[in-house]
Fold these 2 entries.
Entry 1:
Amino acid sequence: MVSWNLPCIRFCSRFFAISGTKGLRESVYSMKEDIMEQRKMGDFGGIIHGGDYNPDQWLDRPEVLEEDLLLMKKANVNCVSLGIFAWCRLEPEEGKYDFDWLEKIIQRLYENGIYTILATPTGAMPQWLTSRYGEVMQVNAYGVRNYAGKRHNYCPSSPVMREKTRQLDTRLAERFGAHPGVIGWHISNEIGGNGGDGACHCDKCQDAFRKWLQDKYGSLEQLNAAWWTSFWSHTYTDWNQINSPSPRGEDLVHGQNLDWRRFVDSQQRDFCREEIKAVRSNSTLPVTTNMMEFFETLNYFKWAQEMDIISWDSYPDWHSGADELQTAASTAAAHSLMRSLKKRPFLLMESTPSVVNWRQINRLKRPGMHELSSLQAIACGSDSVQYFQWRKGRGSSEKYHGAVVDHRNGEDTRVFREVARLGKRLEKIAPRVIGTCNRPRIAMVFDWESWWAVKDARAVDNNLNYQAVFVDFFRPLWEFGVDVDMVDMEGELDAYSVVIAPLNYMYKKGYAEKVRSFVKRGGCYITTCWSGEVDDSDLTFTGAHPLEDVLGIKTEEIDVPDGYCENSVRYQGTDYRITGLCGLVHAKGAEVLAEYQNDFYRGYPALTRNAYGDGESYYIASLNERGFLKAFYGNVLRERGLECGLQVRLTEGVVVNERSRVAKDGEQVERIWFLQNFNREAAVVELQACYENVETGEKVTGRLELPSFTCAVLAEG
């Protein structure tokens, strides 16, 4: 069982113990004393339900706040995020702060059983700041400084930006750090999400980049060797010659590109770290920041080290394809990533109850999908469902973005009713869910730096999508009802029975030794073509594959069958179409389990197994249609005893996630299953044992019908 550090204990005792507000008197002005006493005693738990609240847009209409309080109670809301984009309201002039309006709102919410996650408002800068201090705005890769406006337009290296942020954050912590209605800090908002790569290329950032490189390499000789700068005679002879990658200059030195990405991530983290330091100067409340699933720019495994708890914003593109399954699988993978960052429950910080406004086509969630997608988050490890946003604004770019409260009709809307219904369901399941978590025995290797290197590789397939391939390898496990953790190459492997590393292109220092030890002690390691190609400087390995002894193969060429040269692999008597890369390998001790069927490499190994120590390794030489992975994974799961814990015959589009509770000694004491139907029509499953419906207490067994877009929450009965 994963232990909880003290900040997280405090965080969860406050963050997760906030349900029970249904006992409020109808009056908007007071909370029942027994509920206040319950919270103080901490003897009840709950799932956070609420969202992004922007009353600063409505300060000229006090009646809106009163209406919001009534509607929040009807929607079973127990928490909101405040102040995310309120810098100009909090500091309307430089050095002049106005927190009174915020305190009144926090207090009124608290009096009504609604708690606040308070944001530092650095996601968007006020006009007085940008007009007075031009250095705070980013410079793009062409060397042009941005105009004021939009979000995340700040330079993380700017001393002025850092100081103005420190001053505001410190004042906020002084004022609200001990307020009983505030339960945590929301640091900035969707950091790095400015529509580009999150980078600033100004002179201050260039200087910081050079200093970062000096600290890393120590000498230009070491840097030139790592970057292979003899390429095109681009050897650096002075630190000041080095600039960020740019279409105006150098952007083809892969080691330089990789280090720039690392620097951008590091500099943004350093800025965030300063914000955290500022709020912690006067507050002991836990901190989080809302991440953005597989967001390429930032290495979230490193960001997780800065946070007390993980949160993220989830906006799947439902109803965009022939069915919902690919979207559902991708979303499950993203949830699993967020849970894996700390191997603890996370917070769904933002979602939409209806529609977004930033895609070319913005589809409404069909009836039932809001509840299903929200419960999917809970199933995968979230202890919250929160929305952007509570109430729609009247103007600007997000006026048509979905919200709980529309421009008109108040509570009399389909969306509001669905939100309220979900709130009641969350209240029912919370006592059984809070304190549980997903505890996978399978891990998949997802590494940001390897992703960056793959994207830059310029090899046989320059359209190769690392994230998409990763999800393709995740999806069959999800369909089997088997939970998966994600780890990067710096993570530990020994807690798992099986480790899957698709397109593990880069091998960081020490990684091969870690895998070798894992397999030798009895683990099962599965990897693919286009793995072990480069080191962490993006320099190719020469000689044998770094894990040749573990895999029992020799790698040679790589191809991309297409058009007239299509190919397939035969596995256990069935042919499966190749859909992407395929490597040409030779068995050197490994057992050949599948072979190519066409072209000059007909008969070459396409899937191998090699015994090593007490464990085994598999090498999948090609990217194949999904049926291949389902057949292969099915065999591995059976051999390893890792099949779905719910005794059920699943049908297409119906999936299972399991959360469990363990005792202090590590013994599993309760298992909760979320049985989800992502089909656009009803589905029937066969339960092979008797279970309890967590929401109703009824016993269920045998034939169970799941209407379209529904989720049943079951426990051992």
Entry 2:
Amino acid sequence: MKLRWKFFFILLMFSLIPLGILTFVSQRGTSRMGEVISEDVQQSSSRLAAAILKRTAENSAAILAQTKKSFELALAGLAHEAEAVFAEDPPGRVKVYFATDFEDPATAPPDAGPQAGYMKKSADGRLKNDIVSFEHPVVVLAPGVSASDAAGDIDRLTLLTDFFSEIFTKLGPALHWVYVSSESGAHISFPGHGGYPDGYDPRRRPWYLDAAEETRWGLPLVDAATGQVIMTVSKQLRYPDGSPAGVVAMDVLLTEVLRIDALSSFWTAAMQSFLVAPVFNAATQATDLLIVAQKDYQTQASSWEGAIRSERLAVEDPGKMSELTDEIAGGRSGVLEMPYQGVASIWAYAPITPKASFVMIVPREVTDRLPEKTVGAVRAFTAESLLTTALTALGAILLAVLAALAGSRGFTRPMVELADASGRLSRGDFSVRLSTRTGDERDQVIQAFNDMVPKLEDQLRMRESLQLATEVQQNLLPRRDPCLPGLDIAGTSLYCDETGGDYYDFLEVAQDRTGAAAVVVGDVSGHGVQAALLMASARAALRLRASLPGSLPEIVADVNRQLTDDVGDSGAFMTLFLLSVDGRRKTARWVRAGHDPAIYYAPEPGRFEEFAGRGAPLGMEKGVAFEEQRHADLKPGGIIFIGTDGIWETTGPQGEMFGKQRLREILRTRHGDSAREIIHAVTQALETYRQGVKPADDITMLVVKIL
């Protein structure tokens, strides 16, 4: 055999052995990577789809519930104004417009005219814009009641016109009508309009008969003329002696409120949403789900359609249907899988009122589309990589014959990079990219790999988006400490998880606008997103209520009633300590709602006191009475410390709690420092005591130092 052939075979052998080993390792690594990624994506994406859909329903319901609170607070304010008007002597007569005045342009108010969003049927059955006035309300008298008989109530009710306009300005287009009716049969509605039927008696209407001392929401109804979904919220009015005075009510356009549920997800186009109400069926002795409104994202992605005819939400699985009905009737949220119209689907549900719930349905084939597409891409890439590896090996053999070791080394470099990148990707490094360009078929493998990585990274970003709740909650805490004469105030909240139920705030109390500081510390039971949502709801309710007239016990009692309505059946509750300090007068007033007493330290004579008092936690019982406590002799240099139990229940490596005695010793030794320095000292002491042990509870502290 000639030398050149021996050299040929030697080169070929030394080329094939390392190339064979490299090819084998690359194939095994690529195959294993495809298997691991495919299995993980298939499992995690399916769970993530159900979790995201459930969270979407709950978040939409939570936002709607918050919107509902705004209407409830506005109605409470209107009721307060109306009761004040009924308690006064009637003023002098003013110009009023009755319903019949709106039927004739000659007698209608000067500003009356057709208004978009206010529709009525004409004589030929067509819809047209109603004649409405936003400057003058309309007065309607019940049958048998003359204008002279109800003159006093008419004059009183017209005093509410400015308040009506203010409510419409604040609440926006979701507010459709607002009206007040007296026991005498006088009825005033804003904006002013005609079209009342003959014999209209407001005292015989369901919203009047069902009204109670607390705000009450009626069942969602569909306007037969316009198809708009309306809910009425009402409240009973009383004279100073306690006798019934009338009812105040609002009509809320759910078709406007529900616009907030505009979702953005890759399965939205196939989603169907329903607003349902549980209704007892006497014929079957079971509870049905009555469809009040529905939304098909494929045909009407921006609007809701009211169900004019009584239609029940039907499913093909009686057992699952019973489970869904029980969950909705119980005011719970969740997610389950069952068919809808013969298609396997995921159902998510969440309550928006005690009488209505959201139901969102997405076909299972749609939620599985993304993981299936991703898995298909991974498998296709794996197959392509294996094929390309084989072709590259053959090409390397031919190249080795011609270029020997130099060509072999250059040929195998991209495969080495691919194997390394595949290993990094299998370990979760989504920043890996291949930049080598060869000018041959291997570029297809490189491009396929680079195209696949962002798609897998998108899955990671979807998970990271769920952590945005942490940033939202942090923005709810005060951004800076208040600056008030005679006081040094500072506070902080440290959460053991991404979100928590502790919070503190600085308030503007309507009756304390004389330089006094109003601060609050709250602690919601539990941790996580549920506690954070309740905290945000309580914060909003407390801020809004504090801006209205009322004493500290009244503020806390009103917030308690709202929270009890929202979470009374869930077992969740919240402790709260509301404190008002006057730095000039050196006085303090507080209300304690199940929270640990505040600690007060007076340097002279070096004595500790507790700001205690009776009061149950919020959200457990609606009719709880709260007491205001006072301290009339705050000493300069004195410290008021309000904290949550996460401070003294902090445990060290041996399981022993930090305790309140250690906290008092810090306040005694650091009483000369500023409020912010005292908080820093307590925080450092807790970190030192834990010695690296993860905190088991949220920590919130607020310090008020008397200057």
